[in-house]
Amino acid sequence: MQKLSLQQKLLQKLSPQQIQVIKLLELPTMQLEQRIKKELEENPVLELERSTTDDIDDDYNGELKSNSDTENTEFSVEDYLNEEDVPSYKYQSNNYSSDDKAQEMPLTDGASFHEILMEQLSLIDLNEEEIVLAENIVGNIDEDGYLRRDLESIMDDMLFMQNIHTDEKELEKVLVKIQTLDPAGVGAYDLRECLLIQLLRKDLTDPAIQIAVELIRDHFDEFSKKHYDKLIKRMDIDNDMLKEAIKEILRLNPKPGSSYSNTISRTSQTIIPDFILDLMDGELILSLNQRNVPELRVNNTYSNILKDYKISGKKSSSQQKDTALFVKQKLDSAKWFIDAVRQRQQTLLLVMNAIISYQKEYFIDGDETKLRPMILKDIADRTGLDVSTISRVSNSKYIQTHFGTFQVKYFFSEAMQKEDGEEVSTREIKQILKECIEKEDKKKPLTDQKLSDILKEKSYNVARRTIAKYREQMGFPVARLRKEI
Questions:
Q1: Based on the number of CB atoms within 10 Å of its own CB, is 86 exposed (0-12), middle (13-18) or buried (19 or more)?
Q2: 141-181: pLDDT as tens digits
Q3: How would you label 341-374 residue by residue, b for 16+ Cβ within 10 Å and e otherwise?
Q4: Confidence band for 89, pLDDT divided at 50, 70 and 90
Q5: Among candidate residues 215, 204, 206, 221, the one with its CA nearest the CA of residue 237
Q6: Contact at 8 Å (CB) between 24 and 341?
Q7: Which of 151, 306, 318, 359 has its CA at a distance of 20 to 30 angstroms from the CA of residue 474?
């Protein structure tokens, strides 16, 4: 049996304006610029401040001229209603300033790695059947130049998809010919085979090459683990001979396909800082990078449309009412967007100023040992903002300082106590570890336990497991793999 009942609930919901502020707060400067351009294209009520027209796109300059012309002429609701075409503002813009020179950059796209291999197939001795097999093998070679799939799987694919019958011996025979192609080492199953193929193309009369071939072919495990003392005894060679052989191996390319990869297709990310920090007369001066972010305002032409509607009163038609409603919605949307952009700027400056104040000694000279332990809650308490807001500001923003450009979240780190009770940043401990590893004797590199003992001598009570964690985070291998002859 159905019943009707009343319930009271207390719900916390974000308004559309708050959601817009949150979304804008997450955007870095480059994406904010694109977001503003998109809003300008979608909302005819928004326009750029005239003071910023010298630094913005030519298309936007054209937009402002058309708007200023309309302000000097009579514009009524009837004129707006009779328009059949789209408004005069443009939907696209060229990302160039009026001061930039119009220069065309010619782009050339070279052949891909696989296309280069395919072209070389016609230069080796292969019959028609072998060419088909070779094309299938080359198609399974990855961008690094390795054949990651076994020949049995390739044989099964050819049988089911192309109805081509062959055996592993035929494929192996073709693969050996493919391994003669350039770059040297292509078509190998693993690193050992790749290095060996490259070495066998060198001058085998050279004693260093001979030892290098023996190292890779017969003692690859010991070589990869840097058990140099064992290698010297087993191969009956001296230290200098081993050193020369290792030099030859280090000249080889572990990823032969990477040298032929198409650099044009690679995406390179340019970092545009959101904040600029200058040091002038010992004082830190923070500013937002607003170079490509124009100032916005509401177009008065559309405000006049609403004024005309109010004057006409009851005489307005239903079409005029719909027009006035549309303009009002666009005006509200424009005002919300402008307020959201301004609120974003205020929040960014508030958070970044709090971080600089907290880490003032570090920002003066950039010495990592002066970086204080700092978590999101520390800045949240100083600014009165929520921790999630601090996180949004720090995750995708960069700051340009007089000693480099850093991501804002770089300045956050956990705390660790010294023996005297003083709290230090884990960043400081990592910096000391880095200096110890860089200055160590490479013939006898420091173990994690030894590094822990060194830090304890400096009053940093850090366990060996913590040392191992920090070392891996900094990209340093274990002591055995850092060993050199």
A1: exposed
A2: 988 889 988 888 888 888 888 888 888 889 999 999 999 98
A3: bebbbebbebbbebbbebbeebbeeeeeebbbbb
A4: very low
A5: 215
A6: yes
A7: 359
DSSP E strands in 254-305: the ranges are 275-280, 283-288, 296-298
* Distance separating alpha carbons of residues 414 and 427, to the nearest angstrom: 8
405: which strand partners? 400
Name residue, tokens 């979240």.
409
Write the pLDDT tens digit of every residue in 104-143: 444 445 578 888 888 888 888 888 888 889 899 988 998 8
Residue 447 structure tokens = 């173990």
Residue type, 299: N
State the amino acid at position 214 in one-letter form.
Answer: E
Report pLDDT digits (tens) over 4-29: 888 887 766 666 667 777 888 888 88
Calpha distance 249→245 (Å, rounded): 6
For the chain, the straight-line distance linking the first and the last C-alpha, in angstroms and rounded, comes to 86
What H or E segment, with its residue span, contains residue 401? strand 398-401
The amino acid at 317: S
**CA 275 and chain centroid, separation:** 18
Q: Which amino acid is at 4?
A: L
pLDDT of 353 higher than 90:
yes
Any bridge partners for residue 278, and if so which? Answer: 285
Note the pTM of the prediction, 2 decimals.
Answer: 0.54
Whether the CB-CB separation of 144 and 189 falls below 8 Å is answered with no
Contact between 301 and 63 under an 8 Å Cβ cutoff? The reply is no
Q: Tell me whether residue 7 is exposed, middle or buried, using C-beta atoms within 10 angstroms of its C-beta: 0 to 12, 13 to 18, 19 or more.
A: exposed
- 261-275 pLDDT, tens digit each: 554 444 446 788 889
